[in-house]
Write a structure and sequence with these properties.
single chain, 464 residues, Rossmann fold, seven-stranded mixed sheet, 16 helices, 37% helix, globular
């Protein structure tokens, strides 16, 4: 949906074609007889919705640039829509996906400076001729540290999207005579991930995440640079970090967390470190009262699951987040998990879309293990996140305790995948959300994965 006409010398024709789109156009894509088309749009809406919710909390203002009908907004968040097609905007408002709107060009919107906290530009930037000025306008209406969530087709040579789009244009544009498709659906830019990233960096955004989904869509999360950095306070949150021999990483992680967030408690559960991890934690405790140590050196049963369960028994906060101490789990996601939990979700999972640097054998083991686990959860009719084996997740403390029944006997205590064990116990009422990321490989220390972990996971698959 072009905010600026794709072909300047043929202005009226382009607007006319765009105005011909039916108000339900974007909803209809989900009902397409072409399963690939419906899957593409369903996936795109799901990801955009998840990203927005992870940055949103009541009081924040959201603008959807080139909104159409804001079909991604399945949770009916309060969204201000900006678009040239008033029929699409009105349709979105009738569905409660748009609370208010303005029919205008982004380059001449009349919106006030710093009037929004979150901006969405989903499948729109490929239509805009003047990318630089458009991104500058989005910068202008965002507050300092405001977030922009954008997506475009992965329109590069041999990409999945380009191949599928070629056949779609051929069928709808030339065989069925649809002018909009014959005119390339108004696309004037063809983005690869690097080209997309470069456009944002050039215009002063800080890139927080960039990834593709099946080489069909490129997703990017960027921030407007803040003028003054400051702590965020989460007094009703606890962070649980199970550690063992993380001397090379734990100090850096604690420095990052305490420089970003205040008011929360950080529980470090040491399961028998021998490399100086305990000494580093003790030194950090002396200068920061929010850091708590649970020393499990002399416990008979060891493992990640029992370490996390012991910490959950001790916390007093309304919410908690579990993360690893190896720097693979980035602290910047804590704010987003917390926002999701405050929106009445019981569990929020930071789901891996992929892992940078893994060898093929490690990927195959992970894919196979995920397939087996999802099969078990499906047969038990359980709700499940995208990544059932994630070690980075948050939960409502009361929900966890009520579901787990306060008994460690319900878990495989020597296990490694506590989230999977917990999902087996959850009912269909579970309110679940995902946050997506690309997991980085470990840069320091040694992985804790070894053959016994795989054996314990197989036991977990078979346990009740």
């Amino acid at each position: 949906m072009p905010l600026k006409p794709a072909i300047d010398h043929n202005l009226s024709v382009d607007i006319e074609m765009y105005q011909e789109i039916e108000p339900s156009f974007y909803d209809d894509q989900l009902k397409s007889k072409n399963p690939l088309r419906s899957l593409f749009h369903k996936r795109r809406y799901q990801l955009i919705n998840s990203f927005v919710k992870s940055f949103y909390h009541p009081g924040k203002r959201i603008i959807d640039v080139g909104a159409g009908s804001s079909a991604w907004n399945r949770d009916c968040l309060p969204v201000f829509g900006l678009d040239l097609n008033y029929k699409l905007l009105d349709y979105g408002k009738s569905k409660r996906r748009i609370s208010d709107y303005r029919t205008a060009d982004l380059l001449d919107s009349g919106l006030e400076d710093r009037s929004f906290d979150i901006a969405v530009a989903s499948e729109v930037l490929e239509h805009i001729s003047d990318i630089d000025n458009s991104l500058k306008q989005i910068q202008r209406v965002l507050v300092d540290d405001g977030v922009l969530i954008a997506s475009v087709p992965y329109d590069a040579r041999f990409s999945t999207w380009r191949i599928l789009f070629f056949f779609q244009r051929l069928y709808k544009g030339y065989l069925r005579g649809n002018r909009y498709y014959r005119n390339n659906c108004g696309h004037v830019h063809h983005f690869s991930p690097q080209k997309f990233k470069d456009a944002f960096i050039k215009n002063g955004f800080e890139i927080e995440a960039l990834f593709s989904s099946y080489r069909c869509s490129i997703f990017l999360i960027a921030r407007k640079k803040r003028s003054v950095a400051g702590l965020q306070f989460f007094p009703d949150l606890s962070i649980i970090i199970p550690v063992k021999n993380e001397a090379a990483n734990i100090g850096k992680l604690l420095d990052d967390l305490t420089s970003r967030y205040g008011g929360m408690k950080i529980y470090l559960v040491d399961d028998g470190s021998t490399d100086g991890t305990l000494e580093i934690i003790e030194n950090k405790k002396k200068s920061n009262g929010s850091i708590m140590l649970i020393d499990r050196r002399y416990k008979k049963v060891k493992g990640l699951t029992v370490s996390v369960l012991e910490a959950i028994d001790r916390i007093e906060s309304k919410y908690f987040i579990v993360m690893d101490g190896d720097l693979q789990h980035e602290g910047k996601y804590i704010e987003r998990i917390y926002n999701q939990l405050r929106q009445n979700n019981d569990i929020c999972v930071v789901s891996r879309l992929s892992v940078a640097g893994w060898r093929l054998n490690r990927k195959m083991i992970s894919y196979f293990g995920t397939f087996l686990g999802k099969t078990v959860l499906f047969l038990r009719k359980k709700r499940m996140p995208h990544d059932i084996l994630s070690g980075y997740f948050g939960a409502n403390t009361d929900y966890w305790r009520n579901t787990a029944g306060g008994s460690q006997n319900k878990f495989s205590l020597r296990g490694y995948k506590i989230l999977f064990d917990f999902l087996k116990k959850c009912g269909t009422e579970l309110r679940l959300s995902d946050i997506y990321h690309i997991l980085n490989t470990r840069t320091s220390g040694n992985s804790k994965i070894y053959w016994l972990i795989y054996f314990e996971y197989i036991r977990a698959l078979l346990r009740g």
